Amino acid sequence: METLRIGMLGFGTVGRGVADLLLNKQELLAQRTGMKLRLVRIATRTPERDRGLRLGNTEVTGDLHRVVDADDLDVVVELIGGIIPARDLVGRAMETRKHVVTANKALIAEFGAELFAMANAHGVQLSFEAAVAGAVPVIKALRESMAGNRIDLIYGILNGTCNYILTEMRLKKLPFHQVLADAQAKGFAEADPSFDVDGIDAAHKLAILSAIAFRTHLDFSRISLEGIRHIADVDIQWAEQMDYRIKLLALARLQEGLLEFAVRPVMVPRQSMVAAVEGVHNAVFVRGDFAGTTMYHGRGAGERPTASAVVADLVDLARDLRSGGKGRLPPLGVPVHHLRTLPIQNAAQRHGTFYLRLAVADRPGVLAEVSAILARHGISLDAVHQEGRSHVEAVPLIMVTHETTEERIALAMGEIETLESVRETPRTIRIESGLA
Ligand SMILES: NC(=O)c1ccc[n+]([C@@H]2O[C@H](COP(=O)([O-])OP(=O)(O)OC[C@H]3O[C@@H](n4cnc5c(N)ncnc54)[C@H](OP(=O)(O)O)[C@@H]3O)[C@@H](O)[C@H]2O)c1
Question: If you measure from the C-alpha of residue 196 to the centroid of ligand 1, how many angstroms do you get, rounded to a whole number?
């Protein structure tokens, strides 16, 4: 039986899962591919550390070049993460004619164009199913199963850490910083959580999905980005009271040739499917003109779910090599030179309804002052909730607008913030009512 000789970079959470799966499911993988998938070598910073696996003949080394420069390997699995040194290592592996499988979304979102061109030039394949939504097979679904559709909308919950934090804030009625500390203690959030909570990780994944769905260049920098740090527990409780739920939503919508491209916290109806995605789970929704809306849901991270997706790419590669190794699938669904740049919709064109929360002085006439500014900007209100009189310095004033534009909201809130009766920076959260 032919052998697919595998080298791996990194032996952390995902690396351990991939090694476990490859070492313990050899027979199943051989039946499914007609090849023996052999983990020949792993390179990592601390090769001496025991990962609790029986490694057999698999060599573990501290020298990354024993993997990327090797001539006894067919494929390199990159599971180090980040850009340096992963970018150079992946490049080197491809230069020496080895295929690459990676789970590294930052690398694909920021340097995918350069790396796919290199893969093309060297006649190797670069696969990345595990880079978006872990075990959820959304890259294959978009690129292959939806290939006959014109897609106009993709959205989803792409960061399990944020979804876990928002879920816990709601269930336990705790503030953001307390839930974050708890998530860090449990290993659900990194020591430096900014990639997750500031929306960068979700934006990397949205950039990758959008390139496939809309044939756009991988352009992470054009995504408008807002994280969840400023979401207060009172916003979560108000959302609940109004039959909404707050989610960090990654959304790309193509309308009249303009792309709305955003990662931001939004309120979604409590009965919607997207609201039901809880805790560390991920979900992606894709709307196609023939398929309608399809939903992909599951574990977006973790040792075993992510390893499942990495090994799926190795299985695809083995099957492809067995049938002649032509790399029949362009990684982003079309050849890279067919990708285009779509114009981004600006704030004046982005319509919606909004939740507004102010902290205001508890005295008569404040609502009239605020309403006058909103009216001057052409914003009308659908609902107003004002807390009764109390003995505290500031009371919440909650408003829900009718349909307006983001630009008008930004201008009005800028003015409202300067009122003497307004005691804190106003909070605005977009309401997305039309989602599945
Ligand atoms: N964790 C998840 O659930 C998940 C889900 C989807 C995608 N991903 C992606 O998968 C990749 C790996 O994530 P992970 O969670 O497995 O990370 P991790 O647990 O931090 O593991 C990283 C591994 O790379 C090694 N490493 C890091 N820098 C190195 C260097 N300069 N030289 C040699 N070895 C180095 C580490 O070595 P030592 O252990 O020897 O120190 C460790 O074994 C990332 O791109 C991540 O975004 C992760």
Answer: 16
Of 418, 422, 411, nearest to 375 (Cα)?
411
Q: Is the pLDDT of residue 392 over 80?
A: no
Nearest CA to ligand 1 atom 10: 103
E strand or H helix at 153: strand 151-157
Average of per-residue pLDDT across 153-176: 97
Residue 84 pLDDT more than 90? yes
Using CB distances shorter than 6 Å, the residues near ligand 1 are 10-15, 44-46, 64, 79-81, 85, 103-105, 130, 134, 301-302, 306
Listed in order, strand segments (DSSP E) in 28-91 are 36-43, 59-61, 75-78
> DSSP letter string over 342-364?
PPBPPGGG-EEEEEEEEEEESST
In order of their start, the domains of the chain are: 3-134+303-337 (3.40.50.720), 138-299 (3.30.360.10), 349-431 (3.30.70.260)
Task: List, by residue number, the catalytic residues.
Answer: 205
| Peptide linkage before 85 cis (omega within 30 of 0) | yes
The mean pLDDT of the chain is: 95
Q: C-alpha 230: how far from its chain's center? A: 19
Instruction: Write out the H or E segment, with its range, that includes residue 3.
Output: strand 3-9
Which strand (E) or helix (H) includes residue 155? strand 151-157
Ligand 1 mutation target, pool 13, 110, 192, most atoms within 8 A of CB: 13
Residue pair 163/278 in contact (Cβ under 8 Å)? The answer is yes
- Which position has the token pair 């205001």? 360
Task: Please tell me the distance from the alpha carbon of residue 130 to that of residue 138, in angstroms, as a whole number.
Answer: 9
- In angstroms, the CA 125 to CA 176 distance is 42
The radius of gyration of the chain's CA atoms, rounded to the nearest angstrom, is 24
Helical spans, DSSP H, in 186-302: 194-197, 200-214, 233-241
With beta carbons less than 8 A apart as the criterion, state whether 100 and 259 touch.
no
Beta bridge partners of 140: none
> Shortest CA distance to 82 belongs to which of 53, 106, 118, 113?
106
| Alpha carbon distance 212, 205 (integer Å) | 11
Can you tell me which atom of ligand 1 is nearest the CA of 85? Answer: 31
Residue 91: strand, helix, or coil: helix
State the pLDDT at residue 332.
Answer: 95
CA distances from 39 to 7, 197, 238, 256 (A): 6, 35, 52, 49
